[in-house]
Write a structure and sequence with these properties.
- The chain is of the alpha/beta class.
- It is built from eight helices and seven strands.
- The chain has a single domain, classed as GTP cyclohydrolase II (Rossmann fold).
- Strand 2 and strand 3 form a beta hairpin.
- The radius of gyration is 18 Å and the shape is globular.
- The two termini are 28 Å apart.
């Protein structure tokens, strides 16, 4: 169990106006043994989950995955995305190296489950994920990481190694005061149902996905202009949410 009764964590909790730790328990799973923490967002009135492996208080370079909920992928095994694969890769990595997984309830990149299925319907008609969100009147990505940053501060983490392919996530976290010392790519092999989804993440959203993963499917790559965080040397030429 993490030292939740540690007076420093208690003190950090009292200072937080955004996040409250509600409960904690042991969680044996097929991926390893974790501590699970239930937290509440006092502003948006949402419940989120945090999994912790090992002691993270006052630690540097803590492996951390911030995973946004994907019911269709995480629970139902949808082949239209790579969310479940990234979740599994992250849990296995954290089991082996220690760290934190923060599971945020912001389904469908923040548009909610019903709108996500509406977007799926538009994708069935030929739109890609970006086009579908825009057609529904949403921005491409509405996800925020304020809660995740607050959790890391409450747990007393000094710096993190972030498991992600998403440079915007890194940019937001840095603006929120989180020190990221390294990016750990999450590389999931594409399939016949999600290769277009992955191409759009790479080409339109600037996700750091190695183009070589598409080679087995015979997909030709178009020239892509990546969004780059100028102060992050680890986001260049490294591969894969």
């Amino acid at each position: 169990m993490i030292p939740i009764n540690n007076r420093n964590i208690k003190f950090n909790q009292k200072l937080s106006k955004r996040v409250k730790i509600e409960a904690m328990a042991r969680l044996p799973s097929q991926f390893g043994n974790f501590t699970i923490i239930a937290i509440s967002d006092l502003v948006e009135k949402k419940e989120h989950a945090v999994l912790v492996k090992g002691n993270v208080w006052n630690e540097n370079d803590v492996p951390t995955r911030i995973h946004s909920e994907c019911l269709t992928g995480d629970a139902f095994g949808s082949l239209k995305c790579d969310c479940r694969e990234q979740l599994i890769l992250s849990l296995r990595y954290i089991e082996n190296h220690g760290g934190i997984l923060i599971y945020l309830r912001q389904e469908g990149r923040g548009i909610g489950f019903i709108n996500k299925i509406k977007a799926y319907s538009l994708q069935d008609e030929g739109l890609d994920t970006v086009e579908a969100n825009i057609a529904l009147g949403f921005k491409v990505d509405l996800r925020k990481y304020d809660v995740a940053a607050e959790v890391l501060k409450i747990l007393g983490v000094n710096s993190i190694q972030l498991l992600t392919n998403n440079p915007d996530k890194m940019k937001q976290l840095r603006k929120l005061g989180i020190k990221i010392t390294r990016r750990i790519p999450l590389i999931a092999e594409p399939n016949e149902f999600n290769y277009r989804y992955l191409l759009v993440k790479k080409q339109k959203s600037g996700h750091l996905i190695d183009e070589n993963i598409f080679a087995p499917l015979g997909i030709e790559q178009q020239e892509t202009i990546f969004w780059k965080d100028s102060d992050d040397k680890n986001t260049k030429n490294t591969g894969g949410k």
